[in-house]
Please model this.
Amino acid sequence: MSTLKRVALGTQGLEVPVEGLGCMGMTGGINGMSVYGEADEKESLATLHRALELGVDMLDTADLYGPMLNERLVAKAIAGRRDQFTVATKFGFEVNDHEQWTGGYNGRPEYVRKSVERSLRNLGTDYIDLYYLHRIDPATPLEDTVGAMSRLVEEGKVRYLGLSEVSADELQRGHAVHPITALESEYSLFDRRVEEEGILQAAADLGIGFVAYSPLGRGFLSGEIKTPDDFEPNDSRRFFPRYQGENFYKNLELVEKLKTLAATKNVTPAQLSLAWVLAQGVVAIPGTKRRKYLEANVAAASIALNATELAELDAIMPIGSAVGAAYPAGF
Ligand SMILES: NC(=O)c1ccc[n+]([C@@H]2O[C@H](COP(=O)([O-])OP(=O)(O)OC[C@H]3O[C@@H](n4cnc5c(N)ncnc54)[C@H](OP(=O)(O)O)[C@@H]3O)[C@@H](O)[C@H]2O)c1
Model:
């Protein structure tokens, strides 16, 4: 299997594979929930090691995942070969000293420092390649948070800065304080808000790299989830409006059309969805805790889509076609 193409992410010198690995599902989720079903540590670690062999050397984690457990798992995978990986982690969902999400956000300068020290410890490293503000704290000016993050770069604790799920205006404001290397936001055929709201364009105009998270619509675009009962009892997707009740079945109709097109190309719907994201000129971080999906996702990077196929996909899932909110209320 071929290794992945590498691209510049942002304009500060960071180079990454066109696909990174989303690690979120490899441990439990927030406050006792599973993310996308139960994870097996042995298979997760095997997936992380296989990723490196395939050139998928950018790992995406966050202090929130687990909380902390995900970073500690990544630490096991990178131990002894730290320099071969680009490690991206995030802070900003406030995690307390009992390692629970408080339900709030914290972007205060003292919390920025506390968070980075904690993540460095969890990851067993003395630097983070890409440090994202996971969500803006509405009670702290963004400039103060990014200002505190920029001091971490000066101190060598962090190499590059990123923001996640911000508006075009917020992206510009953060970038004015310190160069932002990457914006990580949800982007897939299933969720095209960043196109609709001019965010993708703003990132391109500012020379900020775009990292698409949930590029498979949290697995829904794979076509393998056929009823809401396919989710394990404490699978977090049960709480996301898009995967509930009537919304689930309306959205499934879109996936059925995707399946038909994928069959004509002899690829899976997951691979077709990923190929579409990559065709938009962004970096994607599909999440998986299994080697077989990782390998299928790497293969998807070699799928070429012509103009007719891109137009067909656009017609199947135009902007705004998915029904239901992206996140549960209050998240
Ligand atoms: N910045 C943010 O706010 C934010 C938010 C969400 C996610 N993220 C990051 O983005 C990463 C990716 O997003 P995501 O994990 O939410 O969603 P995703 O990549 O769209 O989908 C992940 C789901 O798809 C399944 N899957 C993966 N490859 C597949 C394939 N080839 N065929 C069939 N099913 C496949 C996975 O199954 P298995 O789990 O069984 O392997 C998992 O259930 C996360 O891991 C996380 O690091 C960031």
